[in-house]
Design a protein that fits this description.
This protein has about 475 residues and is α/β, with parallel strands linked by helices. It has 14 helices and 16 strands. Helix 1 crosses helix 3 (about 50-60) and helix 6 (about 190-200) runs parallel beside helix 7. Bound molecules: pyridoxal-5'-phosphate. Pyridoxal-5'-phosphate binds near residues 191, 287, 317 and 319.
Length: about 475
C-alpha cells in the first residue's frame, strides 16, 4: 500500500517517517495486519537512504506499533485505531444564509416490536436471486461496464436506453401514462426527479403549492432552493384545488395515494387541477410513488394521461415496488421540458449507475418485475385486510379509515368526540414499541387533519392484531376513546 509521507518540516527525517506511520496506525488508516511498505521501496519513493527508513521502522517495532515477520516484512501490530481521524474542526466557513433545511432527512433507525412503518417495502419479498443473476450478467464482458459499444465512456444522461424503453412500456401498460422512451428521464429515486424539476422551474421567491399534510422531503427540497411553500389542504377527494393561492405556479401532489392520509384524488378534482394548470399556466408534479400495489377498484387515470396541454410532470420510483436502496426513479415530462431536465441531470451527476439500470430493464422486460409486484401485492393485501379488520374490531365507529385503494399505508382519523391528538398518540405509541406516525408529523403548520398513519409494508402478519390492540391501549390513555 502506498503511504503518503511528507518530509519537510521540523525533526530529522527518520523521526518524521516514524511519527507519520505511528499516527496512521493510531488513527486506524493502517489496520492491524497490514504490511508497511518495504524499506527499500519507501526509501526509493522518498529519495532518501534506506538506513533512515530503517531507523524509523526499528523505532515503530521497538514501541510495539509493528511486528516483523522474517522474510515477509513489517506488519501493523494489534491495538491500533485508538483515535478517530476527523476533518478540521470548528471551521469558519458556514453554509449560505438561505441554506436552512427545515426538516431533518436523516431517518433515525428505531426498532419496534410492532413496526407499522410507512413508505418501506418488505425487503424479504425482494427477488434477490433473480436480481443477483441479472447484476452478475451485467458484470460479465459485454455487460453494462466492459466490452459493449456504450461502455467506453459516460452513458446517456437521460438513463440507459434499455431502461427508458422498459419503463415507457411498463407505465404505458399498467398506468396508461402516455410516453415513449425519449420522454423518460431515469433519476436517482423520485427525490432527484424533484430536484431536477426544481432546478429548471423554480426561481428563489417562487411559491410552490404542496399538499398539507404532505411529503416533508419535497417541501424541504423546494425550501432549500429558496421557494416559498404554500400548504394546500386535502380531503377524501385529494388536494382542494380552490385553496391553491393565486401566486403559485407549481403544485406537488400525490393523487393515487395521498401522502400521508391515503386518499385518492377524485376524477372531478383531477379535472379541476388540470383546469387550474391550464388557466394559470401552471405545472403539476404528479408523484405516483406507491400505486403499483392496488387493492380493489380499477385505478383512475393519472393526471399525466388526462393532461391535454403538457402541464404535468409524472414522477415514479422503484423505492416501494423494489427497494429504496436501489435509488432508481424516473420522470416523464412534456416535450418542452425534457431537454432542460436531461441537462440538469447531466450537471448533477452525469447519469446513474448503468449496472443497476440495465439489470432493472431486464427485470421488467423479462416479466419478473410484474411477477414480483403481483406476489408482493398478495402479501400486502393480506396484511392490509388483517389491519383493517383489527382496526374495525378495536375502534368501531370511534375512528374512520380514510378510503384508499393503493399503496403501503392507511390513514386513520378519530371522531371529534375522541379528542385525540395524533402526534401525542404516535409519540406515546412509539415509546411503547408500536411504530406508527401521525398526520401532524407530516404537516408544515398546525395540521388541518388529525390522525394516524399506519403502514403494512414491513409489519408481520401475525403481529398485526396484537399491535392494533396495544395501540388501542395507548390511545385510550391519551384521549376520550371509549
Ligand atoms: C410521497 C413519496 N414520494 C416519493 C417517495 C420515494 O422517494 P425516493 O424514490 O426518492 O426513494 C416516497 C418515499 O417514501 C414518498 O413517501
Amino acid at each position: 500500500m502506498d503511504v503518503h509521507i511528507t518530509l519537510g518540516g521540523p525533526g530529522d527525517r527518520a523521526d518524521r517517517i516514524y511519527r507519520q506511520l505511528a499516527d496512521a496506525i493510531v488513527d486506524g488508516r493502517l489496520r492491524e495486519g497490514e504490511p508497511l511498505p518495504p524499506t527499500r521501496e519507501l526509501a526509493r519513493q522518498l529519495e532518501i537512504s534506506r538506513t533512515t527508513v530503517s531507523v524509523a521502522y526499528d523505532r515503530l517495532l521497538s514501541e510495539g506499533y509493528t511486528v516483523a515477520r522474517v522474510g515477509a516484512g513489517t506488519f501493523v501490530a494489534a491495538g491500533g485505531a485508538r483515535v478517530r481521524r476527523r476533518a478540521p474542526r470548528g471551521g469558519e466557513v458556514q453554509p449560505r444564509a438561505a441554506w436552512r433545511p427545515p426538516f431533518s432527512m436523516e431517518q433515525p433507525h428505531e426498532e419496534f416490536a410492532y413496526d407499522f412503518a410507512i413508505g418501506v417495502p418488505d425487503p424479504a419479498l425482494f427477488p434477490l436471486d433473480v436480481w443477483r443473476g441479472l447484476v452478475s450478467r451485467e458484470l460479465m464482458p459485454g455487460g453494462a461496464l466492459v466490452g459493449n459499444a456504450d461502455s467506453a465512456g459516460y452513458g446517456d444522461a437521460a438513463g440507459d436506453p434499455s431502461l427508458r424503453e422498459a419503463i415507457a412500456r411498463h407505465i404505458g401498460l399498467v398506468r396508461s401514462v402516455t410516453a415513449g422512451p425519449e420522454d423518460v428521464v431515469v433519476t436517482s429515486g423520485a427525490q432527484q426527479a424533484f430536484d431536477l424539476i426544481a432546478r429548471v422551474l423554480v426561481t428563489p421567491g417562487d411559491t410552490v403549492a404542496i399538499e398539507e399534510p404532505g411529503y416533508p422531503p419535497v417541501r424541504a427540497l423546494f425550501e432549500s432552493l429558496g421557494a416559498r411553500i404554500a400548504p394546500v389542504p386535502v380531503d377524501d377527494n385529494g388536494i382542494i384545488v380552490r385553496h391553491i393561492p393565486p401566486r403559485a405556479r407549481l403544485v406537488y401532489t400525490t393523487p393515487s395515494h395521498q401522502f400521508p392520509t391515503g386518499a385518492r384524488t377524485s376524477l372531478e378534482r383531477r379535472a379541476e387541477l388540470l383546469e387550474w394548470a391550464s388557466a394559470r399556466k401552471g405545472v403539476v408534479i404528479e408523484d405516483d410513488y406507491d400505486s403499483e400495489f392496488r387493492f380493489g377498484d380499477r385505478p383512475l387515470d393519472p393526471l399525466q394521461s388526462l393532461d391535454r396541454t403538457g402541464r404535468v410532470i409524472y414522477v415514479g420510483t422503484f423505492s416501494k415496488s423494489l427497494l429504496p436502496g436501489l435509488r432508481v426513479g424516473f420522470l416523464v415530462a412534456p416535450e418542452s421540458l425534457t431537454p432542460a431536465l436531461v441537462a440538469a441531470k447531466r450537471l448533477s451527476d452525469w447519469h446513474g449507475d448503468t449496472v443497476t439500470q440495465r439489470a432493472l430493464a431486464r427485470l421488467i422486460d423479462g416479466g419478473m418485475f410484474a411477477a414480483h409486484v403481483r406476489r408482493a401485492t398478495r402479501v400486502y393485501a393480506a396484511r392490509r385486510d388483517r389491519l383493517l379488520e383489527a382496526i374495525d374490531r378495536e375502534f368501531g365507529d370511534a375512528v374512520r379509515v380514510v378510503p384508499s385503494v393503493a399503496g403501503l399505508h392507511v390513514g386513520l382519523e378519530f371522531a371529534p368526540v375522541v379528542q385525540a391528538d395524533g402526534r401525542r398518540i404516535a409519540d406515546a405509541a412509539r415509546a411503547d414499541g408500536i411504530g406508527v406516525r401521525s398526520f401532524e408529523d407530516f404537516a408544515a403548520g398546525p395540521s388541518p387533519r388529525r390522525g394516524l398513519v399506519i403502514g403494512y409494508g414491513v409489519v408481520q402478519f401475525e403481529h398485526i392484531d396484537d399491535g392494533v390492540r396495544r395501540l388501542g391501549q395507548v390511545i385510550r390513555r391519551h384521549s376520550h376513546l371509549p
